[in-house]
Amino acid sequence: MDVVDKFRSGQLPPPEKQLAWFLYGAGLENFGREDKPQQIAVPTFGPRELLAQVDAAGICFSDIKIIKAGPDHPRLFGRDLANDPIIIGHEVAITIVGVGDEMTGEYKVGDRFVVQAEIYFHGKNLAFGYMLYGGFEQYVKLGEEVLRGDDGCYLIPINNPETGYAEAALAEPWACVVCSYRWMHRREGKAGGTMWFVGTPGAPAELSLGEMANWAAPGKIVVTDVPAGLAAEIAALAAKWGVEVIARDGLDGMDVRAVAEGVSGGEGLDDVFILGNGRLDVIEACAAALGTEGILSIVAAEAPDRPASLDVGRVHYDYI
User: Fold this and answer.
1) What span, in angstroms and rounded, lies between the C-alpha atoms of 302 and 294?
2) Which are the contacts of 184, defined by CB distance < 8 A and separation ≥ 6?
3) Are the C-beta atoms of residues 119 and 154 closer than 8 Å to each other?
4) Cα distances (Å, whole numbers) of residue 117 to 42, 146, 158, 195
5) How far is Cα 32 from Cα 162, in angstroms, rounded to an integer?
6) Mind listing the pLDDT tens digit for each residue in 293-311?
7) Is-contact 173 91, C-beta < 8 A?
8) Other CB atoms closer than 10 Å to residue 83's CB: what's the count?
9) Per-residue pLDDT tens for 139-155?
10) Buried b (16+ CB within 10 A) or exposed e, 241-264
11) Are 247 and 253 in contact (CB under 8 A)?
12) pTM
């Protein structure tokens, strides 16, 4: 067996040293050292871990965003990159080259995988190539987070031996394309969630809420400066659901973010209905106060007189 065949089969012994690209902060000047990768030790692995060689790593525009934003990237959660740098790269194809003693019944040298990068471990987002070391290194250790995460194992087998390295690595971005066409947000209020009706200048005096009666009940309903007729409809709907209505009137001087945190227990708002377009500051504050997968609905007869300033990135990262 020649060297290439040994590499392809995962039987080429890993070297003691490897090259890796670390990110130490925002900007290309903080990517690597003196515009070069660094030589570091190949990771050692424990009895419940794997070692994989990185066969191919794609460069995603998300990688560019990480380099540009550094610790301000939403999935790095303010990580101190200067003292705790990351290795990016989440579009990877790998081959297992080392199997921990307790993993021999599940994996073997030569097994090939792509990594499902969206990794959750004990409720935390530890995406591969973000919080976890990614594919811009020659060898990567795969531990508890990847193998026994909240959704199980985040490795996807490559079963066809004819599948090329680059072809396999492109599975991740192609899956994003497919998802963008198939993703369906919920079409009704969140069961047990926090629903907020906010009246602003131009709010409709009446609004049919009949269809909402078939929705699952939220956990609580908050109303703020809602016209009297509509407030009565909301109260009737809440009575049908058996849900408490909390009044938080007086938008002027209100710290919307603080109120949202209080009524949602810090989890963020799930369903917000802004009635009227007369307070863009309220629209902006409520959008910022949405929780993961939250929905903001603006009910108005006309468009506002200026654009609202919203964090569009949250549409992607928090599924709002």
Assistant:
1) 23
2) none
3) yes
4) 21, 9, 15, 32
5) 34
6) 999 999 988 888 889 899 8
7) yes
8) 7
9) 999 999 999 999 999 99
10) bebebbebeebeebebeebbeebb
11) no
12) 0.77
